[in-house]
Structures
1.
Amino acid sequence: MATIDDVAKAAGVSTSTVSYVLSGKRPISAPTRARVERAIDKLGYRPHAGARALASSRTNVIALMAPLRVGVSVPVIMQFVAGVVTRAREFDHDVLLLTQDDVSGLDRVTSGSMVDALVMMDIEADDPRVPLVAAAKQPTVLIGLPQDPEGLSCVDLDFEAAGRLAVRHLVKTGHTDIALIGSPPEVLRRHTAFAERLMRGLRDQAKSSGVTARVEACDSTPAGASEAVDTLLATAPETTGIIVHNEGALPHVLARLAERGAVVGTDMSVVAVCPTDVALSQRIPMTSIDLPAEDIGRVAVDMVMTRLGGEQPSETRLLAPVLTERESSAYGPAAVHD
Amino acid sequence: MATIDDVAKAAGVSTSTVSYVLSGKRPISAPTRARVERAIDKLGYRPHAGARALASSRTNVIALMAPLRVGVSVPVIMQFVAGVVTRAREFDHDVLLLTQDDVSGLDRVTSGSMVDALVMMDIEADDPRVPLVAAAKQPTVLIGLPQDPEGLSCVDLDFEAAGRLAVRHLVKTGHTDIALIGSPPEVLRRHTAFAERLMRGLRDQAKSSGVTARVEACDSTPAGASEAVDTLLATAPETTGIIVHNEGALPHVLARLAERGAVVGTDMSVVAVCPTDVALSQRIPMTSIDLPAEDIGRVAVDMVMTRLGGEQPSETRLLAPVLTERESSAYGPAAVHD
DNA sequence: CTGGATCGTCGAAGCGTTTCAACACGCTAA
DNA sequence: TTAGCGTGTTGAAACGCTTCGACGATCCAG
C-alpha cells in the first residue's frame, strides 16, 4: 500500500502539500495540485483510515444502534437503516451497525473514538442509553422520543398527532365506535415511546370528540391478530372503525376480519399506521398514515451532521402525519350524507 | 480521555507494560497486572481505536456488504445480518454495514484499511465484486456461490440439493406434476446465484425422476403471486405439487390458491424454501426446507475469523438442506397406499 | 560458583496522517 | 527602496498505540 509519503515523493512535493490537496484546507496552485493528483491515481493511493482518525480525531464513521427486538417489524427497521446508510454516504461517512440492546456497545464505540456520531433507534420511554449519549463527546440523534428529551436531538413521526389524526378522520367519516389494534404486548411492556405516544393522541382525541376508543395489544402473528380481532368484536361488536398500528399483524388482522365476514372498506373502516409500501401490499390498498421510515433515517443523519460541524443547539423534529385515503375506509353509521 | 500513558503513570509502570496487560502477548506478574487494571478502571481508560489500528494494522471491524436490492426479502437479509453481527461480537469485532451494490464501497474499506475482513451477501453468478475481493489483502467470505469460486471462501445453503430434495419429496409422496414458483424476474435477470442453483437441482431431479417440473418467476406482491398462480394453473392444471422459493410471495400464493378453491395440504401440496419462522407464520404451518439464514451468517464469520488467524486455504461450505413435513403437503394422485 | 535459560519489564522506534508555525516569493503601497 | 502583505509550500511535531530488542533479576544445572 502506498503512503502519503510515496505520493509526495512521486509528485516532488512535501507530504503536507499532498495532505492539503486532499483536504482542501489550504490553497494549492493548479499545477501542483495536478501533479499530486496524477501521482495519487498512478499509485492507487488511499489514505489509511486509522492514521487519519488518529491525527484528525475524525473517523468518518457513524454508529447506528438498531436493536433487533422482538415485536418490531424488521422491514420497517430496515427502511430506517437504508435511509441512514445512504444519507451517511452522501456525507462521506460509513455506518457501524450495533444491534445489541445493551449499553456496552455504546460505551465501546464512543469512548474508543470509533465513530464521529451516533444515531439511535427504538427509544424506550426511560432508556438506559440516553444518559450515556448525553455524556458522550459524540453528537447523537435519537429516532424516537424519550421521556425527557432535554438537551437531546430527536426525530420521529409525530405519533401523538397521528393518533389524533386517525381518530379525527374516522369521526369525520361517521364512526363513533373506534378501536386501536396496536403493538405487541412486549413492546408496550418496554414502554416503547412511539406506541405510547400514538395511544395518548388517540385517547385525547377520542375524549374531546366524544367517541369511544378501546385499545387492544396485538402479537404480530396470525394467532395474535385473530385473538385481537376476536376479543375486540366480542367486547365491542358495535365497532366500525379500526386503527391498526402494527405492520406485522396488519395482513392477519385483515384476514381475520374477512373470515368473520366483515367487509373492510364497507362494513368496517380500517386505517393503518405504517409505511406506504406496506399499506399498498395488503389485500386491498389501505387508507393509511404514512410512517416515512427512510425519510426519518435520512433526517437523523442530516441532524447529526449539522451538529458535527459547529455547536448547534439540540432540537427535536416531529414530522407531521399525513393520512391518505384509499379503499379500506368508508363512511360509517353516523355519517351525514348530503 | 485518558491515554495509555496516563494509565502507565498512574500504575507506575511503562506504557508497554500496560499494552501487554491489555493484549496478553507477554507474561505480566500478578501484582503488576492488578495495579494496571486498577488504574485502567479508575481512569475509565479505553484504547483509541484509530491509534490501535495504525500501530497494529488491525481494526477489529469487519465489513458486511448487504446490497438492499429489489426482490430480495428484507426479513431474510436481516437474519443474515443478525447472525453476522452477533457472531462478530463474540470475536470482539464490530460490523461496518455497506448497502450500495456498486464496487466503490468495497474499494474504500479495503484499501483504506477500515476493516480486517469482509462478508459479502447476495452474490450474482458473475459478480463484479468478486475479482476485487480476490485481490484485496483482507480475507473475504461470500454468502452465496459465484460462477467460479476458485480460491474464494463461500458458504450457503446447498440450493441445488434443496431443489432436488423438494422434488424427491413430492415424487415420493405421489406427485408427478410439479412446479416451482420462484424468485422475482429481477432476481433472475441478475443471475442471482441461489435462484439459479435451486432451479438447476429441481430440473435435474425432475428429469431423473421422470416427472414434469415447470417454473414460474414471481413478483413478491399480491398481484405478482396471483398472476404466477393463475398462469401456472391455466397452463398446467394437472399440477398437484408446488415448490415456493420466494418468502415475500408465499403468503399471497397461498391466499390465491385458497381463493381459487385449492385446498393446500389436501388437493395441493406446497413445499416452501424459506426460514422456519416464515414457514410457521403462514395460514397453515408449511412443509418447508429451512433456509438457516442466521446460522449461515454466523458460519460466514467463523470462516472469516479462522482465515484471519493463520493462512488457511479457502473452502466452500454448502449446508445440507433439511426438509420438515408440516401441514401443507400430503399424498398426491400417484401415491401408493399400503 | 558460574553460565545459561527464563521471566518480567522497559525504552524507543515506528505506524500514516494532520496541522501549526514558519518561510520564500512576488506584489503593492508608501 | 523597503516595509508589509498574501499566496503557496514546507518541516516537524503531534496523535495514541504496538512491538521489537534489550536488560536486570531470578533460577537451575553443571
2.
Amino acid sequence: MRARKQGEPTAIERARRAQIVRAAIDTIAESGYTRASFSAIATAAGLSSTGLISYHFATKQNLMAEVLATILADFTEFVTARATQGTPATRLAAFLAANCDFIASHRNHLIAMLDLQHAASESQARQADSDRAKLTELLADGQRRGEFRPFTPDLMAGFILSLRNGVIRRAATDPEFDLAACTAELLTTVRLATTA
Amino acid sequence: MRARKQGEPTAIERARRAQIVRAAIDTIAESGYTRASFSAIATAAGLSSTGLISYHFATKQNLMAEVLATILADFTEFVTARATQGTPATRLAAFLAANCDFIASHRNHLIAMLDLQHAASESQARQADSDRAKLTELLADGQRRGEFRPFTPDLMAGFILSLRNGVIRRAATDPEFDLAACTAELLTTVRLATTA
Amino acid sequence: MRARKQGEPTAIERARRAQIVRAAIDTIAESGYTRASFSAIATAAGLSSTGLISYHFATKQNLMAEVLATILADFTEFVTARATQGTPATRLAAFLAANCDFIASHRNHLIAMLDLQHAASESQARQADSDRAKLTELLADGQRRGEFRPFTPDLMAGFILSLRNGVIRRAATDPEFDLAACTAELLTTVRLATTA
Amino acid sequence: MRARKQGEPTAIERARRAQIVRAAIDTIAESGYTRASFSAIATAAGLSSTGLISYHFATKQNLMAEVLATILADFTEFVTARATQGTPATRLAAFLAANCDFIASHRNHLIAMLDLQHAASESQARQADSDRAKLTELLADGQRRGEFRPFTPDLMAGFILSLRNGVIRRAATDPEFDLAACTAELLTTVRLATTA
DNA sequence: GATGAATGAGGTTTCATTCAT
DNA sequence: CATGAATGAAACCTCATTCAT
C-alpha cells in the first residue's frame, strides 16, 4: 500500500527505508548482488518478513535504485566537500584522495556500488555519465589554465574513474591491501598522466 | 554422470562442453549474469534440455568457472602472442594495444568477464592475481632496465588492468564510443605514467 | 474494534460502511472480484488505509456479504416499486421491464452481483432462494387466476431470473448491445412462455 | 522449459496436461475459481509440487484457457452428436435435452465453466460468441422454414443459453433439484417461446 | 474513529538439479 | 550420450488482518 502512495513520507517511514537500504548495502557487499534476496536483506535488517520490504518499496528494482542513489549521494557529499578549493590539479588530487579515504570508511558502500553498476537501469547509467561529465569539466578547466596537457577530457575522466574503481575492487578483495600506499601511488600516477 | 566421472574426456565431450561454454558467454554478455539461467544458455546453444548442461557440468558454479577460465585462456593467447617482443615499454604498449584489439573482436568475452568477476570464486581470484603478477613482472623488468620510473610494480599493474577494465565496460555500454581514439589516448597516458 | 462491537451503529459508521460498500461495488464491476482487493477498494473509496475497511468489517467475506445484500436491497426497492399494481401478468411484465431499466441505470450493481454469486455464502444462497420464492408466488397467483398456463412455478421463476441474468451479462460484456430492443423481445418471449 | 517449447507434445506430456486440467476442473467446481490455486490443483492431481504445473503450462492464464477449451470441446462433442438430425425445432429440443443430460453426467465441467466465464480472455469470449452464433443460425433456419415465429435470432439464442446456464447453476447449487422435471419444463417453455 | 506500519501466509513463477529411459 | 519429465527450494510480490498511536 505505502509503496504506491504519494506525498511526503513520515519520519518513521524514512527511518525504515534507510534501515532497509543499509541492510541491502551490507548484504550486497558481503554476498553479492545475486545472493541479495529480499529474504537475506530482511534478515540482515532484523525484519520479521520480506513483506515489509515490499511494503516500503514497490519493487526490487525500485529498492536497488534507492540503494544506488543513496550510495552515490553519500559518496558525492563526502567527496565534493573535499574537492572544491584550489586549482583543477589540486582539486583532482583532492578528489582522488577523498575517494580513497571514502573507500577506507565506506567499504561496503563501494563494493555494493560496483556490484550494482551492471544491474543499473537507464536513469542510473545517466547518473554515472553525469558524474563523469563533472570530472570532464574539471579536466577541461585545467587544460584551459595550462595545468593539464592536451588530452581528450572525456576519455581521461573515464580513465581516472576506472582507476578509482580498480582500487575499490582491490581493496574489497584483498584484505592485506595497503590502501595508504596505493593512494600515494595513484596520486603520482594521475599527476604524471595529466600534467602539462 | 559424466560430470562426476574421472579420466580423460572424449572428443565429443570436449566439443559439447565448448559449445555450452560459448553459449554461456554469449548469454551472459547479452543478458547479464543474473538472467543467464541454464534454460537461457541451453536455448542459446540449441540444446533441447538443460539436463545436458548438468550432465556435463556438476554445478552451475562449475560451469561459470570454466567459462571464466576459457575467456582468460583465449585472452591470454591473443595478447601474449602480440606482447612478447621488444623492450618492456614496447611490450607494455603492445599489451595495451592487444587488449583494445581484443575488445573489438571479442566483445562478448570481455563483457562476460566483467560480469563474472564479482561472482568469482576463490580460485578465480587467484587466477586474476596471477595475471596481474605477470604484468607486475614486466613492469619490474622495465624498471631494472631503466625504462620505467620507480613505482610499486604490483600497484601499477593493478592500475593498468583497471584502465583496461574501464575501457571494456565503456565499450560495452556506450555504442557510440570511439575505441580507436581511446586506444591512442590510453597508450599515451600509460606511457606518461610509467616512463622514467 | 467496531466490527466486533455490539449495539446500534452510529450515523458516521453507517455512512462509512455505505461508502466502502459503494467503492467495493464499483471495483468489482470494473476489475472483477479477483482483483477487488482491500487495497483497490480503499483507493476507489478515497481512503488512505485498508485498515479502515477491516475496522468496519470483521472479514472480507463479511464485507462481500454486505455488498451483495446492499445490491439486492437496492434492486428490490427499485423493482418492487414498479411491479406492484395490476394482474400477475402485468406485474410480471413490469418486473422484467423494471429489471431492464435497472440494468441501464445500475450497471455496476448488477455486474458485481453476477460476479459475487459464485463467491456466495450459505446465507446469500438462501437470500437468492427467497427472491425466487417471491417470483414463484407471483406466478402461482397468476395461474390461480387463469392468466398463466400450468407450469411448475418454482422452475419458471428460475427460468425468468436466468433470462434476466443473461441480459445483465450480455449488457455488461457487449458494448454494442441494444438493451431496449432486447427488453421488448424478452417481454414477448416471457409472455408466450407463460400465458395460458 | 517444456512450457516454452515448440513442436508436437509427447504422449506422456499430453497425459500429464490432461491430468492437470482434470484436477483444475474439479478444484474449480468444488472450491471456486478464487480458491483454485496451483497448490490446490497440484494436491488434487496428486502432484508433488506446483512446479510441475508451471513446467507444463507457461502461465496460470494459460492453464485456465486450456481448462475452458477442454470443457467446451467435451461439451460440444457431446451435444452436437445429439442435435444434428431433424428439423430446427427438433434439433433445438435435442440440443436442450443434450445440455441437460450433460449437466447430469459432467456436473463439475459445467460448474467450472460458469466460474471461468467471467475470468475469460478475449479469445474465449469470441468462442462463446461463436457458440451463440451457431444457435442463432439454427434459429434463423427454423424461421425460414416457418417453424419458428419472427424473433431476433441472436437475442433468442442468448435467451436460450441463459436458460441453460441457469439450469446449470441451479443444478450445481441445489442438491435436491429435480433435473429431469426441469428438462421437461424447459423444453415446453422454449417450444412455446419459439414456435410460430 | 482513523491511520500508517507491520505481519505472515500464501500466491505464481523460475531455477538448478536428478533420474528413468 | 542425450532427452524430457519431475522435483523442491527459493524467488518476488500481494493480501487480509492486527495494532499502536
